[in-house]
Amino acid sequence: MVLYVGLAAAAFLITLVLTPLARRIGIALNMVDHPGGRHINKYATPRSGGLAIFVAFIAVFLCSAPDGPAKIGIVLGAIVIFILGFLDDLYGLSAPVKLVVQIAVALIVTSFGVRIRCISHPPGGFSEIRAVWGIPLTVLWMVAMMNMINLIDGLDGLAGGVTAIASSTLFFIAIMKGQFLAAIMCSILVGSTLAFLVFNFHPAKVFMGDGGALLLGYILGVISVQGALKAATAVTLVIPVLALGVPFFDTLLAIVRRVRAGQPIMAADRGHLHHKMMDLGLTQRQTVLILYMISAVLGGAALIATISDVPVSAFFLVAFLGTGVYGGYRFGVIERENGHGPGSGHTRG
Predict the structure, then answer these.
(1) Is 228 within 8 Å of 67 (Cβ atoms)?
(2) What is the pLDDT of residues 127-161, one digit of tens each?
(3) What pTM value is reported for the model?
């Protein structure tokens, strides 16, 4: 345990020192979000903070992870996905270009042996998945994870805090399952995101940008494939879904909302859960803290599911999905067919 605390501390210190420098780089390159439109920040804010998280992760991971193909693949994927996000922050890339590169990144990782290798089925058995199926499933999961974190990065401190909570949950699961590499990555991610929150919590001095959000989603995707999804247990899928419940369900609701509205799935909008909560009168800080608490509760449920039997895990998953659907309608994240669901008249920006 001392090792993991040390890794988290190292990542924390590196991120803490480098974030002000990353902020200045963003200002120099005019990577700045100005108030207005979909942006709810009141002041011009650089979106280059992900650079500090990236350097901290690569530096600590290279020094601590055991040598092998997985290490090489994870580092290569992290470099490519961060460059993609950084260029998007700098120039603004099209959705198809970003999707193609995200798929390429996922394929890079799988080519180095990081992929889903088994699928669980009641009452506790599992079947190995051949590469012809395991690789596409891994790519789908990885691409989804990259975009999940990017989608919730809409309020000061939201993506960073939710990532820190999810990483803490996945860390304890990795320890219980004896998954050394996943535990290392979780430790680094917790340290770096907590340090970044010093500058990113409301009112934010710097944003992580697409570079940071895509990187965090990528790392969480690798962690879940190496950790929670790697375990041959009947609760394999339940665990990461619960641990990453807030971004998972917000993304699911966004897809449903956009399909019903006839919009492209990758199109940006102001219908996310955090937007709707603010439309109800909550402040940024209140909204973020509530979503932190929800993430923590779901993380606790994921831990219980890890050590419980199938019925208990199934109960948590059904309760989570049911509550999420109800909340989607209640907050207007999903609107009823007549368009008069709660929150249907709210717009921001």
Answers:
(1) no
(2) 677 778 889 989 999 999 999 898 888 789 999 99
(3) 0.83
